[in-house]
Amino acid sequence: MSLRRRAGKARKPVNVINFGAAGKRDSNARNRVAPQNQISNVSRKLPLSIDVNWIVDASDSFIPTSWDIAALTGITAYRLISNPFDSIYAYRLEFINTKNYDYYFRDASGDVYEVNTFRNGTHYVEYNSSAPNIIHIYGS
User: Fold this and answer.
1) DSSP per residue over 48-105, as a string?
2) CB-CB contact of 54 with 132 (8 Å)
3) What highest taxon heads this organism's lineage (predicted)?
């Protein structure tokens, strides 16, 4: 890289990362790493744990979650129903999320059901239980 001078004023060189024809980084390029305190915390998610009282409902519509559940878990609505589909499972929990978590739902019998969400949207888990109401959500 050459520096051009203008009428007696020198310009400071700019850090440029050059890639060669093979796509490899030029050996003269400087690696710049942001200090740890400047890295954004946006992508970091906190572990969650919250008690809920989601009961099996005959309604076909989603139930909005409270603001504290939505803020902590990213779950904005749910539907817990007796499974209407021809399935070996008696119950179906559907939910809409806005955060990507590996969710764990505990029912009143103590059984735990996992749903790992890689995208935001509607997800579900089907299960059998002697006490199907969901009483706790935790995730990571």
Assistant:
1) EEEEEEE-----SS-EEPPHHHHHHH-EEEEEEEE--SS-S-SEEEEEEESS--EEEE
2) no
3) Bacteria
Mean pLDDT of the chain: 79
Longest Cα separation, the chain = 86
Q: What does residue 36 show for φ and ψ, rounded to 5 degrees?
A: -55, -35
**Count of positions (residues) in the chain:** 140
Query: Which whole-number Å values give the CA distances from 81 to 1, 16, 40, 59, 96, in the listed order?
Result: 67, 58, 40, 8, 15
Burial 84-115 (b: 16+ CB within 10 A, else e): eeeeeeebbbebbbebebebbbbbeeeeebeb
Dump pLDDT digits (tens) for 28-80: 444 444 444 444 444 467 899 999 999 999 888 999 999 999 999 999 999 99
Q: Which residue has the tokens 């089907």?
A: 126
Nearby residues of 87 by Cβ (< 8 Å), 6 or more positions away: 126
